[in-house]
């Protein structure tokens, strides 16, 4: 197994660091899947058991000036590594003004993702800074756990309101309850609600719009064409998991969407021109 990548463009390095930092806010550990064309950051929580899951996909050519890898075999040309994204984020933040940054899979006292940066100095010479981020190589027999999740057979798909607005609302609501009901319909309306013995609070959004992909009906993974556009699909979730998703966002997406499987799961999608991030929050009873 071999992996080596090089980033020269400062804007690409900053963007890559923001993506890693976002992931570090969502999970302490995740799996980095390397393929010849893409990088994937995967959190494979068992939604059925109450765990969140995440799938983040990056096109390597949009970040790396050089990218070389050899997987475990020609037939299985992939590498799967368990990483701590916080360690990766911390290392990248120290080399933001580098002339070039190299990422390489190395074997020191343990397998590592080594980040080597060429930093400018006041003289003509450059300074080389190296960070070794420990990783764990995931064996081939476990790869099936880290494949792309299928699009859920959702009841409603809707565009999200501005993420900063949504975050401000949830920051206030979390002081009143541990749980939040997310509900939406096919008429562009979304409500965020908490309901306790002491207080009931709702925030309403309208005219958000609905993505077109569900229009063909449930065979495309979308809602049934006979569904009442004003009927609300709702799911009760752990408010801290939704807040965690919103607090960490540094991707600055061009589109942000939410799919709701009634009383089962909230599926959040952020799309940037070269990054996609999916986050699944299961329902709580």
TrEMBL record:
Q: Name one Pfam family in it.
A: Hus1
Write down the superkingdom of origin: Eukaryota
The cellular component terms of Gene Ontology attached to this UniProt record, alphabetical and capped at eight, are:
checkpoint clamp complex; cytosol; nucleolus; site of double-strand break
| Keyword Nucleus appears in the UniProt entry | yes
Identify the stretch(es) annotated as Disordered: 210-231
Compartment(s) where it occurs, according to its Swiss-Prot or TrEMBL record: Cytoplasm, Cytosol; Nucleus
Protein keywords: Cytoplasm, DNA damage, Nucleus
Alphabetical GO biological process terms: double-strand break repair via homologous recombination; meiotic DNA integrity checkpoint signaling; mitotic DNA replication checkpoint signaling; mitotic intra-S DNA damage checkpoint signaling; nucleotide-excision repair; response to radiation; telomere maintenance
SUPFAM superfamilies reported in the protein's UniProt record? DNA clamp
Give the family per the record.
Belongs to the HUS1 family.
Its annotated function is as follows:
Component of the 9-1-1 cell-cycle checkpoint response complex that plays a major role in DNA repair. The 9-1-1 complex is recruited to DNA lesion upon damage by the RAD17-replication factor C (RFC) clamp loader complex. Acts then as a sliding clamp platform on DNA for several proteins involved in long-patch base excision repair (LP-BER).
Oligomer and partners:
Component of the toroidal 9-1-1 (RAD9-RAD1-HUS1) complex, composed of RAD9A, RAD1 and HUS1. The 9-1-1 complex associates with LIG1, POLB, FEN1, RAD17, HDAC1, RPA1 and RPA2. The 9-1-1 complex associates with the RAD17-RFC complex. HUS1 interacts with POLB, HDAC1, FEN1, PCNA and RAD9B. HUS1 does not interact with RAD17. Interacts with DNAJC7.
**Stated name of the protein:** Checkpoint protein
Q: Which organism is it from?
A: Champsocephalus esox
